Amino acid sequence: MKHLIAPSVLSADFANLQRDIEMINSSAADWFHVDVMDGVFVPNISFGFPVMEAINKYATKPLDVHLMIVNPDQYIERFAAAGAAVITVHYEACVHLHRTVQAIHAAGCKAGVALNPHTPVALLKDILADLDLVLVMSVNPGFGGQKFIPNTLNKLRELKAMALQINPDLIIEVDGGVGIHNLEDLIDAGAMAFVAGSAIFAAPDPKEMISELKNLKTGTLNI
Ligand SMILES: O=C(CO)[C@@H](O)[C@H](O)COP(=O)(O)O
């Protein structure tokens, strides 16, 4: 399997959202990464259902929805109805994580769990078999344009080793400070899906940058 590129809509130009969505549609990207922030779980507010529905109206690729919100359970069906293909909740935001994962699957979506930089990968051992995806945060969630935290590489290696034992089909995604400068190291550490915001939208030619990210390492991943 070739690695997946998920441009983060958070870094798009919201005054020209349809234009940026169509750029992603016509690019080498695999998914749209949709960051929902509530101002409680993270110190920032992004957008909610109206924007998510607008993205879904024009997007022709799966929506990979990252919920940085408390009490995600109460919104899962609405995000599924708004077009989510993958719903990722935060480990740190869920008291009954297994129930939340069941609810995501019951809503017809793939289920992901995100880990903040300080949260050990080992805490996922007893839920890993039930997950489709783990999102390893390589910055503290809340803002685009932050610097990649190097310890993420150790976390990815540890998660990859766990996944090989427990859930070989698991998609390992990484988010925050990802770009052409570190993509190869991240692939080597075990990641296979890459969220990129500023690396794409601050590039002179965002569509060309998506192609560069997609084609950086030739061949297929050993997953
Ligand atoms: O979830 C988040 C931030 O909380 C990310 O998806 C960022 O939007 C990634 O932005 P860059 O670090 O790639 O600029």
Automatic annotation (TrEMBL):
Transmembrane segments: none annotated. GO terms for molecular function: D-ribulose-phosphate 3-epimerase activity. Substrate binds at S8, H66, G142, F143, G144, G145, D175, G176, G177, G197, S198. InterPro entries: Aldolase_TIM (IPR013785), Ribul_P_3_epim (IPR026019), Ribul_P_3_epim-like (IPR000056), RibuloseP-bd_barrel (IPR011060). A divalent metal cation binds at H33, D35, H66, D175. It catalyses: D-ribulose 5-phosphate = D-xylulose 5-phosphate. Its cofactor is Mn(2+); Zn(2+); Fe(2+); Co(2+). It holds the Pfam family Ribul_P_3_epim. SUPFAM superfamilies: Ribulose-phoshate binding barrel. The keyword ATP-binding does not apply. Keywords: Carbohydrate metabolism, Isomerase, Metal-binding. The active site is at D35 (proton acceptor), D175 (proton donor). Its EC number is 5.1.3.1. Coiled coil: none annotated. Gene3D superfamilies: Aldolase class I (3.20.20.70). Binds 1 divalent metal cation per subunit. Pathway: Carbohydrate degradation. PANTHER family: RIBULOSE-5-PHOSPHATE-3-EPIMERASE (PTHR11749). Catalyzes the reversible epimerization of D-ribulose 5-phosphate to D-xylulose 5-phosphate. HAMAP family: RPE. Belongs to the ribulose-phosphate 3-epimerase family. This is Ribulose-phosphate 3-epimerase. It comes from Pedobacter gandavensis. The gene is rpe.
